[in-house]
Amino acid sequence: MDFESLAQKKDGSHPSFHSTRIHALQRENGHNDAASDAFLTPETSTHPLISEVFHHLSRNSADPLTQSWTGISAKTHVLCAQLEVEADLKKRLNAVQQRINSLKSELSEELQAAQTAADQLLSEAALRAEVSRLTYSQLTERLNLNLA
């Protein structure tokens, strides 16, 4: 298998040299984290400082400083990926929170409508009771007058 086919993403596109280099460096240092691999994107490796780190790493030196930078760059890339995940989760949380607020508002309106309908039925029942009481009172008076 050649380098190009190894660097090819699942969707057929080619990642930047830098993200491919991160994969290679992570594997060389025993970092085989599938979760961080899933978030590797060319956008996270185009930052000027990250590009400079990769420039230093491309020399393939085995000195301790380069090895340190290899670890730092791998962790920096994972951090960038996790920050992207965090931003995505915040967007999703905001959308869920807006939906919750919308549902609360709709529920409040429906409860208010139900309360209004119940109050109206109660008022009608009170009026019917008053009409019944007055009718009973008048009927009782007439019956008492006719009996007397």
Entry summary:
By secondary structure, the protein is mainly alpha-helical.
What does this structure look like?
78% of the residues lie in helices and 0% in strands. With 148 residues, it is mainly alpha-helical. It has one domain. The longest helix is centred in the C-terminal third of the chain and has 84 residues, at 64-147.
Main features:
5 helices; 148 residues; 0% strand; disordered N terminus; mainly alpha
Question: What gyration radius follows from the Cα positions, in whole Å?
Answer: 38 Å
* Annotation field: number of helices: 5
Q: Would you tell me the overall average pLDDT?
A: 75
List the helices and strands in order.
HHHHH
Low-confidence stretches: 1-18, 31-42
Largest sheet, described in full? none
**Share in β-strands:** under 5%
> Got a strand count?
0
Oligomer: single chain
Global morphology: rod-shaped
Give the % helix.
over 70%
Please, how many domains?
Answer: 1
**CA(first)-CA(last) distance:** 119 Å
- The SS-based structural class is mainly alpha
